[in-house]
Amino acid sequence: MEVLIKEVIPLTSQILGFELVAKNGSNLPEFTAGSHIDVHLDNGLTRQYSLANCSTESDRYVIGVLNDSNSRGGSKFIHESFHVGKTITISEPRNFFPILPSTEKAILFAGGIGITPIYAMAHELSAKNIDFELHYFSRSYDALAFAKELESKFQDHVYFHLDDEPETKAQMNLLLDQPHESKHLYVCGPNGFMDFVIQSARKLEWNDAQIHKEHFVGVNVEAGNDKEFIVEISATGQQFVVPKGLTVIQVLEDHDIFIPVSCEQGICGTCITKVVQGEPDHRDMYLSEAEKALNTQFLPCCSRAKTKKLIIEI
Question: Which residue range or ranges hold the 2Fe-2S ferredoxin-type domain (predicted)?
């Protein structure tokens, strides 16, 4: 659907916020905290951004975009070309990072740009009168997005942990003590940050059913040991060689076979595909460990094969 950029908000020196509204002034599709939208860019790329505003707001979406020095062409393009009054195309919201109904207390952890879905969660938890703590980690106060809004709206629930203020260092054993099945941990940010939080929680006997995370970037996998394999389409028997350096998606597209794809990093799940035979080499961040162990589906945008042949259904 097409939306209009109503406002561009400088959140930090590296993060811009964008307020999006319907072109005709109507309400936008409903969403819940943790949802994201696909943003379709004029340069042909599609990128996912979490909604940061309160889910009770039906007239607008708010996203935050970090101008990442390691950008693959998405965030840099947005920072350079998005302006007030521009029309852009987005998807309806989807949520792979929801607040579970069983949550009686939420411990929210955000690192850097990971604050966007966490900020929306704070809104929703507050509106539902569910107890929560929000711990926001950054290098300095100036690098915090939505800092003043968080302080004014949730001052009794928000804690900033800043690298340049040693007295604010998080004591994880205190923040995560007394795990209980009614408590849930929600974490979003760089992969290293999330690993730190999750490992700290597991050491304190939080179980995986209580731990929930959202990824912005996929994990870099060393491609040096990649091997060539064959992908076969079960319905037609067509076989194609997937060489080192190319993905299944790329090889199939070269032969005019198209699987819907969005993030291309194994995060969003758009391209999830059924596996009929063979063992995938799972490299995504979308499937759970249990789902990966079944080897009945994989994400061809990033995953490969451990066997010489992978037969898939499309």
Answer: 227-314
- Cα–Cα dist 255/111, whole Å: 41
pLDDT at 43: 85
Residues 130-158: tens digit of each pLDDT: 999 999 999 999 999 999 999 999 999 99
Model confidence pLDDT, tens digit, residues 243-256 = 998 999 999 999 99
Q: Report the C-alpha gap between 255 and 66 in whole angstroms.
A: 35
Euclidean distance between CA atoms 196 and 191, whole angstroms: 9
Domains and CATH numbers, the chain: 2-95 (2.40.30.10), 105-214 (3.40.50.80), 223-313 (3.10.20.30)
HEC string for the chain: CEEEEEEEEECCCCEEEEEEEECCCCCCCCCCCCEEEEEECCCCCEEEEEECCCCCCCCCEEEEEECCCCCCCCHHHHHHHCCCCCEEEECCCEECCCCCCCCCEEEEEEEHHHHHHHHHHHHHHHHCCCEEEEEEEECCHHHCCCHHHHHHHHCCCEEEEECCCHHHCCCHHHHCCCCCCCEEEEEECCHHHHHHHHHHHHHCCCCHHHEEEECCCCCCCCHHHCCCEEEEECCCCCEEEECCCCCHHHHHHHCCCCCCCCCCCCCCCCCCEEEEECCEECCCCCCCHHHHHHCCEECCCCCEECCCEEEEEC
The C-alpha atoms of residue 207 and residue 181 are separated, in whole angstroms, by 9
pLDDT digits (tens, 9 = 90+) for 38-96: 899 998 888 889 999 999 999 999 999 999 866 667 889 999 999 999 999 999 998 98
